[in-house]
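Reader question, answered in our methods column.
A reader sent in the components of a multi-part assembly and asked whether the whole thing could be modeled at once rather than chain by chain. We filled in our standard form and ran it. Here is what they sent:
COMPLEX SIZE: two components
ENTRIES:
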Amino acid sequence: MLARSCVRPMRAFASARNGAVQITKRAASSSSGSSAESPLRLNIAAAAATAVAAGSVGWYYHLYGNSHAMTPAEEGLHPTKYPWVHEQWLKTFDHQALRRGFQVYREVCSSCHSLSRVPYRSLVGSILTVDEAKALAEENEYDAEPNDQGEIEKRPGKLADYLPSPYPNDEAARFANNGALPPDLSLMVKARHGGCDYIFSLLTGYPDEPPAGAQVGAGLYFNPYFPGTGIAMARVLYNGLVEYEDETPATTSQMAKDVTEFLHWAAEPEMDDRKRMGMKVLVITSVLFAMSVWVKRYKWAWLKSRKIVYDPPKEGQTKIRD
Amino acid sequence: MSALYNAIFRNNYTMLGAVFAGAFAFNMGYDTLMNKIWDHINRGRQWKDIRHKYATSEDDE
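And here is the structure of the entire assembly that came back:
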């Protein structure tokens, strides 16, 4: 009774067209309201709803286009993938290249960029000899312990000190660079999508002049690889800028490649040891895995190779087991 | 065969000692071999390959 009275208002709506006769019939036979809805009208309704949905999506795309959060220019050109040898699974850094890269960092980048997480001691046995590293450290002054009067004097650097930063603080760095902060390069390779590829592309990717139509802000330089394309760092590497001690020709791309590999070392100085350990682990675990597979098969052989035979009782022999 | 059994497997402590000593010896051999292979794969790339160009005397680092 209750169900019927609930359903009735809906019927009343339909009754206008379907006629009162049908209504009474239906009310008596079932409480389902839609059973008499014609399939044609349902199909029309479904088609109309689909058309409205598709139309509004289309309208949205017409209005806003392929709405990405960023334009391709804001995204930056994706860097080319280069076949870095030191990024192969079983290859160390090329330490001769690291030495050249460190020279480029010292002679070019270090006037703007700090490398504050790298101490002199970590250069020893990887890029410099002890004597070279000590001599380099002593070129700089660091704060000493407070003396008797509590004053802090200067002392020459030693191996435990970290590479000096070009500016005393970020504000000074910004002030000297038109308001842009040259970021610390210690972890730069890990900090950017594309890693080495990105930094190499960035350093070598400055066109002679910005392409027609490109908008470059005041104090910025056009570089397609930098997200936004306007970077506050001008092109710094030019052919022959440094003179390599090993007489490698110092082309722009050679210097960019060396300094990029050096920055990768700075961000990941444990890479050589990590890969060597990884090789040992992979070899030994694959041998152990093969052995465990063999042992399993050996131990299971009797079970896997047995045969269960059903021997049906023969005619007249049914009472074998009594 | 029974000599081996008596020497190693019969007592738990000899067995344990054999396992430890075996692991130690295997590790030394395995490391040496693997480092040789590693140095071969990376010949010319590592610091020890270029150090002689820069070290002035043999006794420092």
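What stands out: Residues 124 and 132 of chain A are 8 Å apart (CA to CA). Chain A touches chain B at residues 90-96, 99, 124-132, 272, 276, 279-280, 283-284 (CB under 8 Å).
Send us your own complexes using the same form.
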